[in-house]
Design brief:
Layout: E1 2-5, H1 9-20, E2 25-29, E3 40-41, E4 48-49, H2 60-68, E5 75-79, E6 82-86, E7 89-92, H3 96-101, H4 107-117, H5 143-150, H6 153-168, H7 177-185, E8 190-191, E9 195-201, H8 206-216, E10 221-223, E11 226-231, E12 239-244, E13 247-252, E14 255-258, H9 262-269, E15 277-287, E16 296-299, E17 307-310, E18 324-332, H10 338-341, H11 344-358, E19 367-380, E20 403-405, H12 419-441
Parallel strand pairs: 1-2, 1-14, 2-10, 6-16, 14-20
Antiparallel strand pairs: 3-4, 5-9, 6-7, 8-9, 11-12, 12-13, 15-18, 15-19, 16-17, 17-18
Helix pairs in contact: 1-8, 1-12, 5-6, 5-7
Amino acid sequence: MIGIVGGGVAGLAAAYRLQERGHDVHVFEANEEMGGLAAVYETAGDPIEKFYHHLSGAEETIVDLAEELGLSDRVEWRYKTDAYYVDGVVHPLEKLWEIAAYPHLSLYDKFRLGMLTMEVDCTTFPPSTDSYDDIEAYEDVPVEQFLREHTTDQVYERFWLPLLDAKFGSRKEDVSAAWLLGRVKFRGERDLLRGEQLGYFRGSFAVLIDALLDAVGRENVTTGARVTGVDTTGGTVRALTAETENGSATYEVDSVVVAAMPNVLEDLTGYACDIDFQGTVCSVWSMDRSLSDAYWLNIADEAPFGVLIEHTNFVPPERYGGEHLYYTASYVQDPAEELWQLSNAEVEDAWRDGIADLFPDFSRDDVNWVRTARKPRTAPVYERGYLDMVIPYDLAGEVADDLYYAGMASEAQYPERSLNGGIVAGFEAADRIAEKGTRRERPPQR
């Protein structure tokens, strides 16, 4: 049996691929709920993710997996609307004429910003369309330096700086240009007249989690099971120990895949990862009406949260029994930050006031319900030198034979983390196990 630590998309993807290769698997999930960051809340209609998710056109592995699982008809591609809130005004920035009309950048600034988003390097003559192909070449370049050189000072200070503050806070000066270029590449199909398309599962990403669970077999999954030890006696994985409400049990295993955050790997094996992670506080709000026409609202003004996402400007409110659903969210760089120290009720109270500050006609009576989730590790800080810190899929050389890693500190989650990256990581670990098993079975060469 192969033991898999973690029941998010990476762990389930690894289990699914290993079963395809003929292996017996068992997934151990510490929480009672499967899905990790794709876990959901119930609404008056379809469920909604506790932490916002969508697909970009670059995420091919998750779309292919959906097709394998018979979910092709559940993947929808919809046009969305981004906007920027500046000086009390919501400025749409999706369609070509909206960008042209944006008043807070000059025409030349917008030209340079547009060239970057189209991956055209204007620092060379003639402008180059392949300068940004090798993202790793920018791994050690500070993101501020890159943006000032490859766009303009005004583009950096009036467009990117508020976004970097919202995303990385006190760590923004550590971030590499490779992350930014990865974000530029990590996007959906764009139509000059209608904007960018993003994908979503009709019925939420829980549809994918449920399909994976059914494919793996729910009898091969144990929730509420915290893995507390991995036996690597003799330099080879031999067993794992898991605790449930019924006590502790040890299972003999042929291999172990740790599909969890790197702190779990360190607790189990002593392997330390130097990647720093951000936490996230995220609230889902149900209201009776819409606040704007925007799906994703970036905020340049003072606000207690980093972003406001009106989910039902992307997926229609009819899917949710007529509820208008929003996210407010902020990243946390240090658990000592004030936001992390607040209770959920205190966060919701402060953020309710923040919504009212942005939209003066908003009333507290507009809110039907609000639910807040938080996790201490939801995304890496993509600092310079990041690639030197990723955890290899096969940890034979670092810890023990038959130990594998498929968590968020794997290479599949560079230069940006995603559910697609989780599936890729799970597949990569599973394929290495399968290949190793194939090598063992080959007869000696004569």
